[in-house]
């Protein structure tokens, strides 16, 4: 049974555990007010079978948890997907907060099947290297399933429209199936209001974002039109009224998505070498990056 807690109920007092004190979404007490059951009650425990990964197969199934926080949901998702089936299942969870990853590692009840690493996926080349190294250990180039739950807003607020689209493209290139929960626009306004309430600087990009309104619709359109994925199922809305969506990669577009991602990485890598490792990647420097829109047009026409 899902635990019903209103988002506004968890952040009225500006204290050290206030979600507003975690501008990257790395809340230290996240699962106390949004426990794993709030998502898992919507996800069928037959999901892996439903998307084509039978228990009769001896293949190792790889699942990625993007922005895993302290790992509570990662562990719960492992139990939920594994069930009573004898399945060779491996989960990798990552988060940009090293303290949260340490907590996840210390409390991990399945260290042979679940791994946690500190990683910031917005660091394009470095994150890709780490994830590819993990996949190579299983002879794979993609995860069978990636879960990205309540992460998109933090990438969007902290890095802007272009970074959000790059992030979605990267997710699409990393997995065959994507389970996604995007925060609606009202959450953006609440997050900005909490920062102001705490006397902190507003999110750099909040006032200039052009992608706004129905965020789930914008994300779905971009994944389908530009990232070679298609929406195959909606599992309904969580207790916080967020859509839980399942996408899969269209086989005919996989090679184009891979080429698109390699192109982005090549451009960014070249730019990083010219600017130096500690400088921001921005189209306003000495070297101008092609926009994601330009690269997406290239993808759509090859």
UniProtKB/TrEMBL annotation:
GO CC terms in record: cytoplasm
Entry's transmembrane regions: none
E.C. no: 2.1.1.-
Top EC group: transferase
GO molecular function ontology, one term from the record: O-methyltransferase activity
Gene Ontology BP terms: methylation; negative regulation of pre-miRNA processing
Keyword annotations: Cytoplasm, Methyltransferase, S-adenosyl-L-methionine, Transferase
CDD domains: AdoMet_MTases
Subcellular compartments: Cytoplasm
Catalytic activity, as annotated: a 5'-end 5'-phospho-ribonucleoside-RNA + S-adenosyl-L-methionine = a 5'-end (5'-methylphospho)-ribonucleoside-RNA + S-adenosyl-L-homocysteine; a 5'-end 5'-phospho-ribonucleoside-RNA + 2 S-adenosyl-L-methionine = a 5'-end (5'-bismethylphospho)-ribonucleoside-RNA + 2 S-adenosyl-L-homocysteine
Transferase in keyword set: yes
Domain Bin3-type SAM: 37-252
InterPro entries: Bin3-like (IPR039772), Bin3_C (IPR010675), BIN3_SAM-bd_dom (IPR024160), SAM-dependent_MTases_sf (IPR029063)
Listed PANTHER family: BICOID-INTERACTING PROTEIN RELATED, RNA 5'-MONOPHOSPHATE METHYLTRANSFERASE
Purpose of the protein: O-methyltransferase that specifically monomethylates 5'-monophosphate of cytoplasmic histidyl tRNA (tRNA(His)), acting as a capping enzyme by protecting tRNA(His) from cleavage by DICER1. Also able, with less efficiently, to methylate the 5' monophosphate of a subset of pre-miRNAs, acting as a negative regulator of miRNA processing. The 5' monophosphate of pre-miRNAs is recognized by DICER1 and is required for pre-miRNAs processing: methylation at this position reduces the processing of pre-miRNAs by DICER1.
Protein family membership: Belongs to the methyltransferase superfamily.
Name this protein carries in UniProt: RNA methyltransferase
Organism expressing this protein natively: Albula glossodonta
């Amino acid at each position: 049974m899902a635990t019903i807690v209103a988002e506004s109920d968890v952040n009225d007092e500006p204290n050290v555990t206030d979600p507003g004190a975690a501008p990257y979404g790395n809340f230290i007490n996240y699962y106390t007010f949004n426990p794993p059951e709030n998502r898992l009650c919507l996800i069928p425990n037959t999901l892996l079978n439903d998307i084509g990964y039978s228990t009769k197969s001896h293949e190792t199934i790889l699942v990625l948890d993007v922005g895993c926080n302290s790992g509570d949901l990662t562990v719960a998702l492992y139990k939920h997907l594994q069930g009573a089936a004898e399945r060779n299942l491996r989960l990798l969870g990552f988060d940009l907060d090293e303290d949260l990853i340490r907590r996840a590692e210390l409390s991990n009840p399945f260290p042979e099947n679940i791994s946690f690493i500190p990683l910031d996926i917005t660091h394009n080349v470095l994150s890709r290297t780490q994830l590819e190294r993990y996949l190579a250990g299983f002879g794979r180039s993609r995860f069978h399933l990636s879960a990205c739950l309540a992460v998109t807003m933090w990438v969007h607020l902290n890095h802007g429209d272009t970074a959000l689209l790059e992030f979605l493209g990267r997710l699409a290139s990393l997995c065959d199936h994507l389970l996604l929960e995007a925060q609606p626009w009202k959450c953006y306004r609440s997050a900005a209001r909490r920062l102001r309430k705490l006397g902190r600087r507003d999110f750099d990009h909040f006032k200039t974002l052009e992608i706004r309104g129905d965020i789930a619709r914008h994300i779905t359109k971009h994944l389908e039109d530009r990232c070679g994925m298609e929406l195959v199922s909606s599992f309904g809305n969580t207790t916080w009224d967020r859509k839980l969506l399942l996408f899969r990669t269209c086989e005919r577009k996989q090679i184009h998505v891979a080429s698109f991602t390699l192109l982005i990485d090549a451009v960014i890598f070249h730019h990083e070498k010219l600017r130096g490792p500690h400088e921001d990647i921005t189209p306003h420097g000495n070297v101008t990056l092609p926009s994601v829109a330009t690269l997406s047009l290239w993808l759509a026409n090859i």
